[in-house]
Amino acid sequence: MDLQKPARTQDAAPGVTELRASDADRDRIADILREALAEGRLTADEHAERVEGVLHAKTVGELDVFIRDLPAAHQRPTGPAYTAVPPRPAPGAIPHEAAANVVAVFSSAVRRGRWRAGRRLHAYSVFGSVEIDLSEAIFEYQQVVIKAVSVFGDIQIHVPENVTLRGTGGGVLGNFEVDTLDPVEPDAPVVYVDGWAVLGNVEARPRRGKRVADILDRVQSKVDRKLERVQDKVDRKLRKHLGR
């Protein structure tokens, strides 16, 4: 008789279909249903019924049911959903000359509020303190570089929570700390913090609750344009069906 006890199997991890659905998941399914309506694969009543079901779905598996009979559910993605942002901008992408300098020598300097962030900003703190707050700034460029050098001083950098934040640098008997940040929006601005802290401190982190309104406007514009195209397709289908 075999007295050896059988190995205890661990509980299997929940499958993808059992995961709780997010608002982004629901929006993706709703977009597929709108395209199906525009292409004539769904009637108006079917579309309305499925959209209502999407709004009440709890898991990813429940959402997949509403597009199971549509071609979009069986298409494989053509590429990765996310492209990693490098720690530094490409050579030559950012000019070497700064658009502005923020300097504090035995004093303090602050740049905050509604201001235009150029491509490059230099911050120097020598026995002083510098604060650069981009949470309400206007981003005119996709990439912004902040060179921060602190010698017996302190430099604090704050960015909106929906931008990409990268940092390269170090400390010599000091602290250089950049909280890496990846936003949901693929076209969000990228803020690069590059510098050194010599017996000083350099910190860069997102300011929670602050978002770049310009990004939201661009995203909403894309959604509006897409809805307009879908509505045009639906109108053409209806006119063709009515013989007009």
UniProtKB/TrEMBL annotation:
DUF1707 domain boundaries: 19-71
Region (Disordered): 1-21
Sequence ranges assigned to domain Cell wall-active antibiotics response LiaF-like C-terminal in this UniProt record: 119-176
Stretches of the chain forming a coiled coil according to its record: none
The name this protein goes by in its record: Uncharacterized protein
Organism encoding this protein: Streptomyces yokosukanensis
Lineage, top ranks: Bacteria, Bacillati, Actinomycetota, Actinomycetes, Kitasatosporales
